[in-house]
C-alpha cells in the first residue's frame, strides 16, 4: 500500500543522486523569492496589555515609523467603556520589498475595575478572522484570498517584579491555542538586571505551571542558528524598552531614554532585549510565525469548526482532510445558494416596491385631500368676499337712494323756492304798480 | 482629651493657638515683673512625651509590584514591612484583600515610636476588583469604633491605645497616562475617612519630562473628581499653614523610588538602585522626590497627620455614631459595623 511507497521514497531520498551536469533548479529559491517580492507580504500583529505599558512606543520603535502619533493616538489614549479591538494598516517598503502590516490593538484591556471576560472581544476577533479565511478558502473562486489572520500576539506584562497577575494567566490560558503568544516584559528599564533575571525566572515558572504554550522557536539543522535560538530561549520572556527619541551618547546617536542618572539605550543588548525581539520578529521568524499560524492554530480552528458542522449534518466524517464534496457538487450548491440569494433579493425588492407604491398612493391621497380642503377654503373665502361685496352694494344702493331722495327733496325745495320767488315777485309787481 | 497629645500642640511650630490663652503670647499682653519660669512648661512637657513615646499607624495601599514594602522600609530606615527579608520570597497573591498589620518600636534621639505598618495585599490584583476597598474601609472604621468604645467607657484607661489609621499612602502606578479607574474609585470612597497621601511608585520608570506631565495630569484628575488628599485645603489653620501646604500640594503626588541597598557613587555610599546605565539615588532630589516625601511625612507633618485623624476624621465618625444611637452610652458589642460609603 502507501506505506511501501513512502518507504521506498524515503529510501530513495537518502541516496542522493549525483547530477551529471548543471541542471539549474538551484535557481528555484530565487524564483520563489522574486515572485514573493512582487506579491508583497502581509503580516498581522496584535498587541495586548493594559494601558501605560509602552505598547505604542514599542511598535513605533520596532517598525521605525510613527504608526501611533498625536494625530492617531495609541490605545492608551483611546480607552472607552468596554474593550475594543481595532485595526490599523500600514504599508512599509524597504529594499524593493513591501510589507502590508496590520496592527491590532485592544484599548481598554485590563483597565476597568471589573475585568472579567475582557479577553472575549480578543477571542472573537481572532475567530472571526479565522472564519473569514475558512470561508474564502472554501469558495470555488479563490483568486483573492487576503490573509488577515492574526499571526502573532505580543502580550505585555507589567514590570511588577513579582510574577504574573491573575489576568495575565487567564488571558494566556485562553489564547495560547488560538494565536502565537510572545510574552514581553514592558518598560524593562524599571528593573535592575538582578530583578529582571528573577522576574523572568518566576514568569517562566508560572507559565510552565499553568501549562501555557507560548510561541516556540523552531529547531533547525544549522548548528549556528541553534545556538542563537538557545540564547533567545534563555532570555524569555523578552524584557523590552521602546523609544523613538534619539540621544547622543559618547558621540554616537542612539535611541534611548534620558534619565538624570544615565541613558537607557534601546538597542543595547545589555540594557534590554529589544534588538532580540526585533531581529526575531522581523528578520528571522516572521515567516515561521505565519507558518505556525497557518499550520497549527488555523488548522485547530478549522477542524473544530468543521467537526461541529458535520456532526450536526448528514456527513459524520470527522476527517481533517480536504472537503469531501466533489467540485461539481460544490458548484451546484453554490449555484443554488446564488439562486436563493437572488430570489431573496427579488422578494425584498418587491416588498420595497410595494411599500413605495403604498406610500405614493397615500401621498397622493393626502395631497388630494389637501387640495380639496384648499378648494373649500377658497370657496369660502370667495363667498365671504361675495357677501361683503353684496353688503357694500346694498350700502351703495341705500346711499344712492338716500342721495336721490335728498336730491328730490332739494329739487322740491328748489321748485318750491322758485315758485315762492315767482309768487313773491308777482306779488311784488302787483304791489309796486 | 488625651494628655499625651497636649505637649505636641505647643511644641509643633505650625499650630499657633495657645491652649492657655492667659499665658504668654509673647510681645502682647502685660509685661512680667521678673522671671517666673512659665516657659519651662515646654521642657516639662517634652520630658513627659519622651517618656511616654507615641504611636503612628500608616497604611499602604496599591496593587502588587509597586514597591510598597521597599518604600516603607526606606522611609523608616529599617525592615518594618511584611517582607522583612530581601527578595525571593513566595509572593502569592491572595484571593481577597487581606489586612496585615505589623508593629515595631523604633527609637531615635531618645524618642520612642511604635510604628505600625498596615499592609493590604490583594488590593487591585484580581480580575474583578469591584469593591476591593470594602475590607480596607471596614478596617479603618473598626479602629475608630475601638477607640470610641474605650473613650465612652465609664472606667477608661489613662492612655487609650491608638490603633486608628493616621495616614494612608496610596501608590499610583507609573503608567505615564492618567489615573486608573480603580485609583479614582478608591480615593473617592476613602478620602473622607482617612488622610490619603498619593505617591507615584517606581518613578524611575519615567524621564523628568514624563514625570512632570504625569503629575500634572494626575493632579488635574484628582481635582476633577473632587478628591481631597492630605493636606486638605479646608483644614489649614492660618495663612502660614496655607502657604506651606499650598507649596506641598503643588508638588504632590510625590514621585518616589525606594531601595534598601547601598552603592558607591562618587566615593559616597548612597541608597539606590543600580542599573546598567547608572545608579538611581534615592535621596538625590534630582532623581526622585523621596527626600521630599520623607521630610513631609516624618519631619514636619507627622503630628499634624495624627491631629487631623483625631480631631476631624475620628470626630466625624463619632458624631455620626452617636447621632445614630441617639445619645452617649456605652456601645454594645454588636454594633461594630458602620458603613461609611
Automatic annotation (TrEMBL), chain A:
Question: From which source organism is this entry?
Answer: Oncorhynchus kisutch (Coho salmon)
Q: Can you tell me which family this protein belongs to? A: Belongs to the TRAFAC class TrmE-Era-EngA-EngB-Septin-like GTPase superfamily. Septin GTPase family.
What name is this protein filed under? Septin
A GO MF annotation of the entry reads:
GTP binding
Location (main, coarse): nucleus
- All copies of the Septin-type G domain together span 39-308
Gene this chain is encoded by: SEPTIN7
Localized where? Chromosome, Centromere, Kinetochore; Cleavage furrow; Cytoplasm, Cytoskeleton, Cilium axoneme; Cytoplasm, Cytoskeleton, Spindle
Region called Disordered, residue ranges: 313-332
Which Gene Ontology biological process is one annotated for this entry? cell division
InterPro entries per the record? G_SEPTIN_dom, P-loop_NTPase, Septin, Septin7
Where does the UniProt annotation place the signal sequence? none
The reply to whether Electron transport figures as a keyword in the UniProt entry is no
UniProtKB/TrEMBL annotation, chain B:
Its localization reads:
Cytoplasm
Gene (UniProt): SEPTIN3
Q: Which family does it belong to?
A: Belongs to the TRAFAC class TrmE-Era-EngA-EngB-Septin-like GTPase superfamily. Septin GTPase family.
Cite the GO molecular-function annotations of the record: GTP binding
Q: What are the residue boundaries of the Septin-type G domain, all occurrences included?
A: 52-324
- Please give the name of this protein: Neuronal-specific septin-3
Q: Check the record and name the CDD domains matching this protein.
A: CDC_Septin
Q: Entry's Pfam families?
A: Septin (PF00735)
Q: Which UniProt keywords apply?
A: Cytoplasm, GTP-binding, Nucleotide-binding
Q: List the GO cellular component terms.
A: cytoplasm
